Amino acid sequence: MARWTRRAVIATGVAAGGLLAVGVGIRRGDLSESVAPLVAGDGEQVFDIWLTLAPDNGVTAIVPHAEMGQGVHTSLAMMLADELDADWEKVSVREAPATRDYANYALARGYLLGERDVPGFLLPTVDGFFLAATRFEALQITGGSLSVRTTGRYAMRIAGAAAREMLVTAAADAWAVPRAELLTRRGELLHAPSGRRARYADFAERAAALPEPPAPRLKAPDEFTLMGTSPPRLDVPPKVDGTARFGIDVALPGMRYAAVRAAPVFGARVDSIATESVQDLPGVRRVVDLGDAVAVVADGYWQAEQALRQLDVRFTASGNESVDQDDIYRRFADSLERAAADDAFTTDLRRGDAPGRLAAGGRLVSAEYRVPYLAHATMEPMNCTAVVADGRCELWLGTQNPLGFAKDVAGALDLDIDDVRVHNQYLGGGFGRRAFPDFAIQAARIAREAGTPVKLIWSREEDMRHDHYRQANVSRFRALLDDTGRPQAWENSYVDKHDPEEAPHIPYAIENQLIRFVESPTHVPWGFWRSVDHSLHAFFTESFIDELAVAAGQDPYRYRRALLAGEPRFRAVLDLAAERSGWDRPLPAGHGRGIAIHRSFGTIVAQVVEATVEDGRPRVQRVVCAVDAGFAVHPDGLRAQMESGIVYGLTAALYGEISIRGGAVRQGNFHDYPMLRIDESPLIETHIVDGGGPLGGAGEPGTPAIAPALANAVYAATGIRVRELPFARHDLSRPERPGRDIA
Amino acid sequence: MVTLTVNGESHVLDVDPRTPLLWVLREQLALTGTKFGCGIAQCGACTVHLDGQPVRACVTPVAAAEGRRVRTIEDLAAGGRLHPLQQAWIDEQVPQCGYCQSGQLMAAAALLETNPDPDDEEIDAALRGNICRCGTYQRIRRGVRRAARALAAGEQDDG
Question: CATH assignment of A6-239, given 3.40.50.300, 3.30.365.10, 3.30.390.30, 3.40.50.2000?
Fold first, then answer.
């Protein structure tokens, strides 16, 4: 049985793209009776499941992805509207319902191809097979920086182009003119020779009855009218007047509120609950034993939370009660040493003979880095409103996988997936956290027991202590430099791999490479955290290459540049960042510049940080970012995502640390898990390269390079090499060097 | 019973006087634009005005708001016209997920009431209590400056 990993989803989503490019987005033949009533308003014609056309010529793009600030509703609507030649002023977006008709077709197709044998009993046609398989898998994910790359490219554009061709055919037939003489522009059909013109809506009914073109022609980039421009995002106006509805804002008649507390130590269970200690408190309705957590249901959230704090609950021992963070790091070190002794590593990448070259001797450089667990800390704490009645369950919440949540809640309640309906709302931050359905399952179980609608809200403390964490990790390096300082061998060993697979890979031309890992499991739950494994490996690899440059006595920018001779896109991005940062301009004393470059999710990002050290702490003055995502569909959106990814990564680099004590998470709120605030937020300049090639992602690639760029800048400013994050652990005013070399 | 004046309207509410103002706004008055983020006045998502001063509604007992004017994000646009900050937030495309932005806007509005032309340092000082996980900080600074310019221009027009 294949293990569920995002690695598979991502790799296959991209790989599958080239495989079955056309026809994927269009499957009106599968447009079940159930879809039309869900997405079409009065008098609207449903063209395929991705767009409707209304009598007033309004176009609605139906987008199967969650909006969490990344602007995906706008970008996907643009891709559809551009191919359709729609009037952008008349385009709106509706988020697709969480039904299997809107499963991530492209993603699931790739997932299946990547990890599983094709079962022969499924449908005979390729499209039919994949559609069925997608429904089976219940995937509707927003993540992996994939929406524009897969749904945009393989559904939205094709759907828009197909609808345009159908409208052209309908008008050409009616006017008895050749199709080739018709033009489309801003929601209108034009026939210049006869002077005829009509609105799309005039032909909507006839067009929708036509067969869909199997392979509609897509525009070449020089024909784009919307893609490559930056219209205002459609989700911004409701976000400035308080009307945007997030999961936490949903209200239902007769709704009660629930607060929850899970066993502090992961793996522990509820032993006993002294329900009588709270049952007479005002507003309290019920205490619910969830097995590994306890919930209080009350008339108001504050009442529920107050009662929960007074509730006397005992938990069983899980066996993890004595685990501290140092034990975890010690276990990682043991795993690495044992794997080295027993030759028990799993190989990520082997090129040439790195161990042989290292053993032959020469100028050896080695280093060990480590990073802590991280929580997501979305601004909107986890919450879900649920109703369970008559064998059905309805959920209102923000989720990165509505269909997957429906499937998991159905499993927990022993219902059919079709009896669970998820109503997705705006997400008050996702960053990977809202791909995990634990809180939705809790809400459904509490609502079933309460017999009324229930809104479950996690306190900030619950949110921080029961996250799915970015893994802590230790990574060791050895490299061998030749007489000119150029690396001849690169060996990297680390623990606990997740995905994407290529995260620890480097773009540099080094002849002998060995990258390997050993699993070293802990009891701390793991989760996707913005850029996933890239968030740690970029810090490791881009710090170590900087150390090699220093050991070689060379400029860190030019050292990288020389090793990127065979990678013109990397080089262009690196050069742009260096140039715009004024790399060679002298800095005042105490200032330092650091550079880093990393590719993730198909997008290459280079960043130059300019930093100082004040009171032993780094202060980032300026960040220059260069990005090549192939083509920027919405350039201002790409810039915004770079700014966002940088602040997210900088927050983690400076402050982010979840540590384990007695088996549980120590931190609980923003006072002990601090965030970067506006007064520490640097000026960020983003420069875009449209390098061509396949589209890259936007939501995550801004994050990985910032931590190493900062560490390299601090080294340049102080001579202190920080090898362990976060910076808050280190007093940079002290002369000794933090971090450790391995002997 | 607690008597509360919110956005110019008076309400008599049967709530525990210790209940934080945040939950009264959200649950009793259905004013959900004010957000819950931390519960301990660390993040600013629940920022509202109390007699014109920015306060954290998550730690303000509703009894402490009695007899005073409470203003929330729902009242920032006066007479159907966006506040210059709201327009600037759209023009600069400030929000991403948007969850913290009600609090950011209310904190910024309070700043402009007392300091109509703040520089970046003054903006930072006034808004450092408001966390944004999407990292919209530099756009927030631009938004506040743009709104300040719009306010100044508006006053000149009026004069």
Answer: 3.30.365.10
